[in-house]
Amino acid sequence: MNSLTNTGRILFALPFAVFGLMHFMAAGDMAGLVPGWVPGGVFWVYLTGLALIAATIAIIAKKHISLAALLLGILMFVFVLTIHLPGVMGGNQMSMSGLLKDFALGGAAFMISGLFKDS
How many CB atoms are closer than 10 A to CB 62? Predict the structure, then answer.
């Protein structure tokens, strides 16, 4: 694997560790983003934070990269569908930037998954 691909892999993964830590540091504030029809509120915030950190570790440590990136991509699209899209449809234009960010990150995660299929 060339050094540019490895650098990209690491640079892609690192922000997810920060996002994961933010889920633990601001769980109470983020619980309001969990859709009302999903019970458990803050539990999902913690679980999501753990998933983001676990994906980061797997991708950087080169352990099950393809699976970790695939699951990360699915998580990003769950965010698009359950958090950002309802916000955009409800008239919150600020949700559009989150929708586009998570849409792009989900696509990139799927690309990482495909690139590291053998890892």
Answer: 12
Question: Where do the domains of the chain lie?
Answer: 3-115
Q: Which residue has the tokens 């769950």?
A: 78
Gap between the Cα atoms of 71 and 7, Å rounded: 21
In angstroms, the CA 111 to CA 9 distance is: 10
Environment class of residue 79 by beta-carbon count within 10 Å: exposed (0-12), middle (13-18) or buried (19+)? Answer: buried
- Residue among 77, 74, 86, 97 nearest 35 (CA): 86
* CA–CA distance, 78 with 98 (Å, rounded to integer): 12
Q: Which residues of the chain have pLDDT under 70?
A: 1, 119
16, with CB counted inside 10 A (0-12, 13-18, 19+), is buried
Tokens coding 76: 């990003």
pTM for this model (two decimals): 0.91
